Amino acid sequence: MSDFSMELNDDQRTLQEWVHGFAQNVIRPAAHEWDEREETPWPIIEEAAKIGIYSLDFFANAMTDTTGLSIMLALEELAWGDAGICMALMGTTLGVAAIMANGTPAQQMEWIPQCFGTPDDIKIAAFGVSEPDAGSDVSSLRTRARYDEATDEWVLNGTKTWISNGGIANVHVIVASVDPELASRGQASFVVPDGTKGIRMGQKFKKMGIRASHTAEVILEDCRIPGACLLGGKDKLDERLARAREGKRSSSQAAMATFEASRPAVGAQALGIARAAYEYALDYAKERHQFGRAIIENQAIAFTLADMKTRVDASRLLVWRAAWMAAQRKPFTNGEGSMSKLFAGETAVHVTEEAIQIMGGYGYIREHPVERWHRDSKIYTIFEGTSEIQRLIISRAISGVHIR
Ligand SMILES: Cc1cc2nc3c(=O)[nH]c(=O)nc-3n(C[C@H](O)[C@H](O)[C@H](O)COP(=O)(O)OP(=O)(O)OC[C@H]3O[C@@H](n4cnc5c(N)ncnc54)[C@H](O)[C@@H]3O)c2cc1C
């Protein structure tokens, strides 16, 4: 007997239809406007909060799905609506994921609700790792965290860059170096609460795509936070640093595994964009006539669509597999999390470009959404680990060789 099934259960289908409805009726009609405005779409976040899509409960419920698929289904639909707005809704979850991964149960209880707020008083969060000189190489962070024993405070100094919701978030989770000599093993994560002095937004970036998602520098200047804001607590950090100084292996592999586990969620967003572009191009190819016939009747167009659909479905299978493995706590022995993000990200870029080609001049102008989808898709080969970094992780995992 086998219990293998590719069918979604009733709860998952209901969730998928509900989020799709929001994506179709609220997100899509607003997508062009917020892409042009390049601002956080507060009215859309408010609507999402009102119906419960932007809420702690929504994420807590989705996380209890032992198949791991619920959150992937929701993300695919939201990004199908618009990736920029999806990121505006999801930027908070980067901070939440960091608190979940590193915080004590008490810290999780305290901070995660503050990341979402309530429908009447919406809050957002941000996660700051990247710096001007430390992107892919996160071991070389320059932001420093110094402990002031006299006041039981941590003092943060440094500049973070490319931070989603950076400087406008209510809760910032900042990764900083406590002991630079230990590289990534000397780093820790800190919560910077709302209203803290010494943290401010630097430059806000104008971007190619996902323009409804705010991206900015975060500047920390003698930013003092209570000792209790060190995620995981000081005893655990001291223990970890001591082990690292003795040259013993620490749980850095576990941290890596947590990072890997978030990658299918990024892949699911890329998948949503790719599916949107494929569907749009398919409809267009049936309607557009040249030389007295629908352009889809030409094999060149039909085969392109066949390849697009194949890649979209293959992306979904990789995303679902990795999500299921993560939910089942199965180790990604072959870099399966990275595979899902790598393939779905590159598929989104490829499929959106093919959609433009199928639509010819109409694909290139802003009256149709495919040019926006192509601009949006490109970030999925860059953030949360570039395609090259994903290949590095997969190749190291499959070979056991320290590929450089
Ligand atoms: C819109 C946007 C939102 C973002 N949001 C956040 C956020 O919320 N929080 C956050 O902390 N960061 C965020 N980032 C930062 C993002 O994660 C980094 O841009 C990304 O990790 C790449 O770093 P980098 O830009 O410095 O590129 P670099 O690391 O300088 O890479 C440049 C090129 O070199 C390649 N490369 C580097 N090292 C190797 C290697 N060893 N082998 C092969 N190739 C290599 C890369 O793949 C890339 O092609 C965001 C970025 C953007 C653009």
Which key features would you list for this structure?
404 residues; alpha+beta; 4-stranded antiparallel sheet; 3-stranded mixed sheet; 11 strands; 15% strand; globular; binds flavin-adenine dinucleotide
Describe this structure in words.
The chain has 404 residues and is α+β, with helices and mostly antiparallel strands. 54% of the residues lie in helices and 15% in strands. It has 13 helices and eleven strands. The protein has helices at residues 10-37, 42-51, 56-63, 69-81, 83-102, 105-116, 234-245, 252-287, 299-327, 336-359, 361-364, 370-377, 387-399, and strands at residues 117-118, 121-122, 125-128, 144-148, 153-164, 171-177, 187-192, 199-204, 215-226, 289-290, 293-294. The strands form four sheets. A four-stranded antiparallel β-sheet has the order 4-5-9-8, covered by helices on one side. It has a three-stranded mixed β-sheet with strand order 3-6-7. Helix 9 packs antiparallel against helix 10. The longest helix has 36 residues, at 252-287. The chain is globular and about 80 Å long. The termini are far apart. The model has no long low-confidence stretch (mean pLDDT 95). Bound molecules: flavin-adenine dinucleotide. Flavin-adenine dinucleotide (FAD) binds next to strand 3, strand 5 and helix 13.
Offer a quick outline of the entry:
The chain has helices at residues 10-37, 42-51, 56-63, 69-81, 83-102, 105-116, 234-245, 252-287, 299-327, 336-359, 361-364, 370-377, 387-399, and strands at residues 117-118, 121-122, 125-128, 144-148, 153-164, 171-177, 187-192, 199-204, 215-226, 289-290, 293-294. The chain is of the alpha+beta class. A hairpin with a 2-residue loop joins strand 10 and strand 11 (293-294).
